[in-house]
Amino acid sequence: MAWFRNLVQLSSLKSSLRSRSATTPFPNTQFVSILQFSSQPNSEPTRHVPSSGLGPTSSKEKPRVVVLGSGWAGCRAMKGLDTNIYDVVCVSPRNHMVFTPLLASTCVGTLEFRSVAEPIARIQPVISRETGSYFFLANCNRVDPDNHVVHCQTLTNGANVREPWDFEISYDKLIIASGSMPLTFGIHGVEEHAFFLREVHHAQEIRRKLLLNLMLSDVPGISEAEKQRLLHCVVVGGGPTGVEFSGELSDFITRDVHQRYAHVKNYIHVTLIEANEILSSFDDRLRHYATRQLTKSGVRLVRGIVKDVKVDKIILNNGTEVPYGLLVWSTGVGPSSFVKSMEVPKSPGGRIGIDEWLRVPSAQDIFAIGDCSGFLESTGKPVLPALAQVAERQGKYLAEQLNRIGKAGGGYANRARDMEFGEPFVYKHLGSMASLGRYKALVDLRQGKEGKGLSLAGFTSWIIWRSAYLTRVLSWRNRLYVAINWATTFVFGRDISRI
């Protein structure tokens, strides 16, 4: 271990300095020992990145796999790659993977934010220690498939920072796992006034806004109408994310807000707006159960289509105005601007078109996985849903394929042109789960909407839901965080301080 080697070096250095000081006076021994220790030559090669970027690999170097994105698909692919064969370079606007199934729990303090964020360096350690593997905090702007180059721009958000700059990375194999963007359907005001729930910083913003509204509503001078508006939480979208957030929020209101904000407990409520049925992919019996449980917990279900979003109210297509203090938008996902800009054949829905082996047929050595990709119509396969389990299994499959190709000598650019890719990717749905709050959840293990299989609801499903997600958390460190957070929340309630 690196820390153990450093400790041994420091101990030996102190011993030598101690013996030296016995014969030769040495002023400020502690400072000199630290200085000498810090200047010790590193036994490992220096990691140096040319200012212009990374050029093509030579025959003396390992072939380079560039991964665009750090979501479920990209991280699973990075984790599965054989680093004895490949160097791995990840380009992403975030340096961690988000465990999205538990993200809604962080908004109300059931879990802490670090419990759902897994650093990429822990998922694939070589990017922080090997000379040819790196992580770059940047966005990819353009792919040049003819020259095997990606054009990137650094991410330098914030005040008093330098302007972003461009650089290039040559690749031998490129994995596009850049994910998707929330669908707003072109509705005016959504981008400006609504919160999305896809990243850790989204959950942090929702939490801050929720607690701010709670405290403002308790201040003298607030009118009754304004108090009701501030404490009205509206969720648009009745999919698993919208339902789980509504359930967590209603549970937070019942268990914590009613106890600690007694003056406003009769004002705060949740409204879930959905154009059709909530949880449309679930079994009918489970959907009806979810509707009853949400209604029982105080969530108001409204069927309608949002026409316009103002700073303090939503306007539905029937003219109904719904005032809100917090608006969370969860209506599905679509292709990002980067995916739209790529000049490759697209699948139905605008995703990057792929074949049965997850390759982009029109570009050599380029693969696409996760939410940004979809099967071309020519394959005869349907576009898979934008689910974490789809992305994760595509990442695992692709890593295995690239490892096999690399062992056969096809890891370098244009070397796998005539190689067979083995069995095509086949997706088998493992089921769906959703939490409803108040120790209730849904578990639907059917193969498809019309398929047969086990479906459960209630407390037993809640135990299954928590157990399943606890085992799916990537590291033992975060599993421990999640388990401790759940235990402390159960005993002491949620932390409702605004930091």
UniProtKB/TrEMBL annotation:
<keyword id="KW-0496">Mitochondrion</keyword>
<dbReference type="InterPro" id="IPR023753">
    <property type="entry name" value="FAD/NAD-binding_dom"/>
</dbReference>
<keyword id="KW-0521">NADP</keyword>
<keyword id="KW-0809">Transit peptide</keyword>
<dbReference type="Pfam" id="PF22366">
    <property type="entry name" value="NDH2_C"/>
</dbReference>
<dbReference type="InterPro" id="IPR045024">
    <property type="entry name" value="NDH-2"/>
</dbReference>
<feature type="domain" description="FAD/NAD(P)-binding">
    <location>
        <begin position="64"/>
        <end position="395"/>
    </location>
</feature>
<dbReference type="InterPro" id="IPR036188">
    <property type="entry name" value="FAD/NAD-bd_sf"/>
</dbReference>
<keyword id="KW-0472">Membrane</keyword>
<dbReference type="GO" id="GO:0005743">
    <property type="term" value="C:mitochondrial inner membrane"/>
</dbReference>
<keyword id="KW-0560">Oxidoreductase</keyword>
<dbReference type="GO" id="GO:0016491">
    <property type="term" value="F:oxidoreductase activity"/>
</dbReference>
<keyword id="KW-0576">Peroxisome</keyword>
<keyword id="KW-0520">NAD</keyword>
<feature type="domain" description="External alternative NADH-ubiquinone oxidoreductase-like C-terminal">
    <location>
        <begin position="429"/>
        <end position="495"/>
    </location>
</feature>
<comment type="function">
    <text>Alternative NADH-ubiquinone oxidoreductase which catalyzes the oxidation of mitochondrial NADH does not translocate protons across the inner mitochondrial membrane.</text>
</comment>
<keyword id="KW-0999">Mitochondrion inner membrane</keyword>
<dbReference type="GO" id="GO:0005739">
    <property type="term" value="C:mitochondrion"/>
</dbReference>
<protein>
    <recommendedName>
        <fullName>NADH:ubiquinone reductase (non-electrogenic)</fullName>
        <ecNumber>1.6.5.9</ecNumber>
    </recommendedName>
</protein>
<keyword id="KW-0285">Flavoprotein</keyword>
<dbReference type="GO" id="GO:0005777">
    <property type="term" value="C:peroxisome"/>
</dbReference>
<dbReference type="GO" id="GO:0050136">
    <property type="term" value="F:NADH dehydrogenase (quinone) (non-electrogenic) activity"/>
</dbReference>
<keyword id="KW-0274">FAD</keyword>
<dbReference type="Pfam" id="PF07992">
    <property type="entry name" value="Pyr_redox_2"/>
</dbReference>
<feature type="region of interest" description="Disordered">
    <location>
        <begin position="40"/>
        <end position="62"/>
    </location>
</feature>
<comment type="similarity">
    <text>Belongs to the NADH dehydrogenase family.</text>
</comment>
<dbReference type="InterPro" id="IPR054585">
    <property type="entry name" value="NDH2-like_C"/>
</dbReference>
